[in-house]
Design goal:
Distance between the termini: 15 Å
Strand content: 25-35%
Structural class: alpha/beta
Number of domains: 1
Bound molecules: adenosine monophosphate
Number of helices: 5
Largest sheet: 7 strands, mixed
Oligomer: single chain
Order of helices and strands: HEEHHEHEEEEHEE
Mean pLDDT: 96
Strand order of the largest sheet: 5-6-4-3-7-8-9
Shape: globular
Radius of gyration: 15 Å
Number of strands: 9
């Protein structure tokens, strides 16, 4: 994980002044590093009964899709407003910077499905908390929330279900 942490690039003042953006593109360029991330999560969740991996647009897709394949379970996308073509449900929430609405198809999950939500980074937790609302609206259950990076100083964990957050790299 230290090698992966060293690959994450800090970009100051992106997308707005005062934010230090954690750029994972150097990690994605390194197949060994990306493979280690997917394998870490696969091992963690291999013994759970999971019905789907739910990935949050857009970097949650990059991590979530190979993880779903590795676990041999369906992948479900949560997308930004206006992108999904079929019947959908929506929720609006506050970001570390700005505001957003996310959506999921109404047929994405079945009642009683057990899912893991995946994103690249946990900041304030707003995006994931909103994603949990969408999953639960369809009657599914969130088993775990998985992140490559957690910005611990923003206390995003506090707005997520206790004991259900897994992150590989934490910045305190
Ligand atoms: P939040 O809802 O505050 O937890 O924000 C999480 C979402 O915003 C994730 O999809 C992240 O990819 C993105 N994000 C927020 N803050 C940062 C940051 N400092 N660096 C990179 N991505 C970020």
């Amino acid at each position: 994980m230290e090698r992966i942490k060293a690959l994450v690039r800090d970009v100051p003042d992106f997308p707005v002044p005062g934010i230090i953006f954690k750029d994972i593109t150097p990690v994605l360029k390194d197949p060994e590093a990306l493979g280690t991330i997917i394998e870490e999560f696969r091992k963690k969740y291999a013994s759970l009964k999971i019905d789907a991996i739910v990935g949050i647009e857009s970097r949650g897709f990059i991590i979530g899709t190979p993880l779903a394949l590795a676990l041999k379970v369906p992948f479900v996308p949560i997308r930004k407003v206006g992108k999904l073509p079929f019947d959908k449900i929506s929720v609006s929430y506050k970001l570390e910077y700005g505001e957003a609405t996310i959506e999921m198809h109404t047929d994405a999950l079945e009642k009683g499905d057990r899912v893991i939500i995946v994103d690249d980074l946990l900041a304030t937790g707003g995006t994931t908390a909103a994603s949990i609302v969408l999953v639960e609206k369809l009657g599914a259950e969130v088993l775990r929330c998985a992140f490559v990076i957690e910005l611990g100083f923003l206390n995003g964990r506090k707005v997520l279900p206790e004991g259900k957050v897994d992150s590989l790299i934490v910045y305190d």
